[in-house]
Amino acid sequence: MKLPLLQVRDLHVRFGLNEVVRGVNFSFELGEKLALVGESGSGKSVMALSLVKLVEGAQLSGRCLWTEQDAKDASHLASEAVSDNASDLARPERLAPQILDLVKLSERELIPIRGQDIAYVFQEPMTALNPLFTVGDQIAEVLQVKRGMRRAQAWEEVLSLLEQTGIPEPARRALAYPHQLSGGQRQRILIAMALACRPRLLVADEPTTALDVSLRGQILDLLDKLQQRYGMAVLLISHDLTAVRRFADRVLVMERGLVVEEGATKTVLSAPQHPYTQKLLDSQPLRDVPLPLSDAPVVMQAQGLCVSYPVPRPGLRGWFGRGEFVAVKGADFALLAGQTLGVMGESGSGKSSLALAVLGLIPSQGRLTMAGQSWSGRAAADLPLRRRVQVVFQDPFSSLSPRMTVQALVSEGLALHFPELDAPSRLQRVLQALSDVGLTEAEFGGLLQRYPHEFSGGQRQRLAIARALVVEPQILVLDEPTSALDVTTQKQVLQLLQQLQKQRGLSYFLITHDVSVIRAMAHQVMVMKSGQVIEAGDVDQILRAPQQPYTQLLVGT
C-alpha cells in the first residue's frame, strides 16, 4: 500500500501560553492540490511554516510524518551532484522504513528537507527577495548550495527555470533586480526559486493576493501546469475562494487553529456544512453607497493629465540624453462630492502613477484641480491642499511606522495641519477618529500606547483610515485598500468606508483590481490600459455591458 506523502497527526503550535494551532489532522498525497482557507489569524500560515520549523519561537507537539523518496522516485536526481555543504548531512534515523517525523527532527536534520523536499512560495516577493542581488543570482545560489552545481551549470538551469515559469527574455530578466520587475514577474521568480530543487511538496502562501485578476489567473495556471509537469503536491494557502475553486482538488477550512471542515473542493464550496465555511462564502462585499446629490460640486477634475518618467536610452544615444516613458496619457475625469470614482486596470496600466499625480507626489502635465486649486510643488503653498486630500495605502503594516504608538501615528497630521490645537483638543480628535473606525479603549485596553504590530490586518487598516480622517479631508485616495485582507475583513472595511462616506460626505478615488470592490463601492469607473483610459462611465454600464475586449476580460464577461 502506497503511503501518503504527508500525514499530520494532532499537530499543536504554541507561543508561550497562546495556542494558535490546535490538534490539526490531515493527510496529503503526492500529486494532490490541497487548499487551506480561513481568515487572517486562523493559523493557516503558522501551521504550514511549522512543518519544517520555520516559525521562530513556536513550540510544536504532535506528529508530521513525511514519506521519504524511494529509489524509483529519486531516479531523476540520481545523476545530480551533491554539494559539499550537504554531503555530510546524512539523513536522520527513520521511525519506520521511509518515514520521518518532522516534528522530532533537529534544525540540522531539517536542512536537506527545506527547499529540496518541501519548498515555499511566500506571499510578498519584495520581502522574500533580496534587493541587493539580481534575481538570477538568487536562484543560482539555491542551485549551487542545494544541488551542488557549478556556476555555469547553475546559470543554465536558471534560464531554463525562468523560461518554464513564463518570464519573457529570461537571459535579460535574470540580470534584473527585484524592483525592476513587475508584481507578476516577481511572483514567477519566487516560483522558479522554489522549483530549483524539484521539491515534492510546494507550499504557496497567498501567491495571488496582491495581483490583478488576469495575473491571478496566469499564476494559478502556471502552478497547475508545473504541478502536472513535476508531479509534485501543492498546498495552496489562500483566502481567495475563487482561486481555491479554480485550482484545488481538496480543501481544508481553518478557524482559530482548528480544521472545521474538509473535503472535495466542489462539495465544500457548493454545499458547506459548517457555519464558519458558510460565513466565508457569504462574505462578498455588499453595495450600500449613497447617491451623490444632483447638484453636488466637483471636488477634483483632470483634463489631459499626463505623467512621464525619464529612462536611459540604449547604446551611444544614452550618452547625450535620456528618453521618456509616458505612464499616463491624457486622462480626463471629474469627481463629485460624496462620489466614488473607481480606477481599474492590470499591473503596469498606469493606475499607481495616476494616484501619485493626484496626491501631488510626482510631477504631471495637463490640468488637475481640487476645489479650484492645483499642486504647486512648494510645500508651504500646498499644505492646505494636503489636508483636503489624504491617502490609505494597500499595506498598513508597511505604511504605518512600527516605532510609533497609535496616539503618535494618528495625531501626527494634527500637529502639522492644526498647530493651534492644545494637547487635550488633539487627544479628543484622535479618540474621535479612532472611535469612528471602530477602535475604542473599551475594546482595546491601552489603545493609544499600542504599536501597529499588536493589531490584526483589518485593525491596522482601520488605524490607517483613522490617521487619514483625523485631519478632516474631503477626498480619500484608496490605493488597493482591501487587497491584503481576507474576505470577511475586506467586507468589514468596505462597510466602514461606506458608512464614513454617508456620515462625512467623503469623495473616494478608489484604485483596485478587484471587481467585487468596484461593484460594492464605485459610482463611476475608469478602465486603464498602457497608460490610457480606454473606457469610462457609470458602474452599472461598465460592469454589465463593457464595450472594450480588455474591460470584458477584467470583469469576466
List keywords for this structure.
557 residues; alpha/beta; Rossmann fold; 6-stranded mixed β-sheet; 22 helices; 24% strand; globular
Summarize the structure in words.
- With 557 residues, this protein is an alpha/beta fold.
- The chain has a domain at 295-371 and 506-557: P-loop containing nucleotide triphosphate hydrolases (Rossmann fold, 3-Layer(aba) Sandwich), CATH 3.40.50.
- 36% of the residues lie in helices and 24% in strands.
- It is built from 22 helices and 19 strands.
- The strands form four sheets. A six-stranded mixed sheet has the order 6-7-8-3-9-10, sandwiched between helices. It has a six-stranded mixed sheet with strand order 15-16-17-13-18-19, with helices on both faces.
Q: Helices, strands, pairings?
A:
Elements: E1 6-15, E2 18-28, E3 33-37, H1 44-50, E4 59-67, H2 84-87, E5 99-101, H3 107-110, E6 118-121, H4 125-128, H5 135-147, H6 151-164, H7 170-173, H8 183-195, E7 201-205, H9 213-230, E8 233-237, H10 241-247, E9 250-255, E10 258-264, H11 265-270, H12 275-281, E11 298-312, E12 322-336, E13 340-344, H13 351-358, E14 365-370, H14 379-388, E15 389-392, H15 396-399, H16 406-417, H17 423-436, H18 457-469, E16 475-479, H19 487-504, E17 507-511, H20 515-521, E18 524-529, E19 532-538, H21 539-544, H22 549-555
Helix pairs in contact: 5-6, 6-8, 8-9, 16-17, 16-18, 17-18, 18-19
The total count of helices amounts to 22
Shape, principal axes of CA atoms: globular
CATH class identity of the domain at 295-371 and 506-557: Alpha Beta
Q: Briefly note the CATH topology name of the domain at 295-371 and 506-557.
A: Rossmann fold
Strand content: 15-25%
Q: Based on the structure, what is the oligomeric state of the protein chains?
A: single chain
Class inferred from helices and paired strands: alpha/beta
CATH superfamily of the domain at 295-371 and 506-557: P-loop containing nucleotide triphosphate hydrolases
Q: Radius of gyration, rounded? A: 26 Å
Helix content: 25-40%
The total beta strand count reads 19
Q: Point out poorly predicted stretches.
A: 71-91
- Which strands sit side by side, in order, in the main sheet? 6-7-8-3-9-10
N- to C-terminal separation?
47 Å
- Could you report the average pLDDT, rounded to the nearest whole number? 86
CATH architecture of the domain at 295-371 and 506-557: 3-Layer(aba) Sandwich
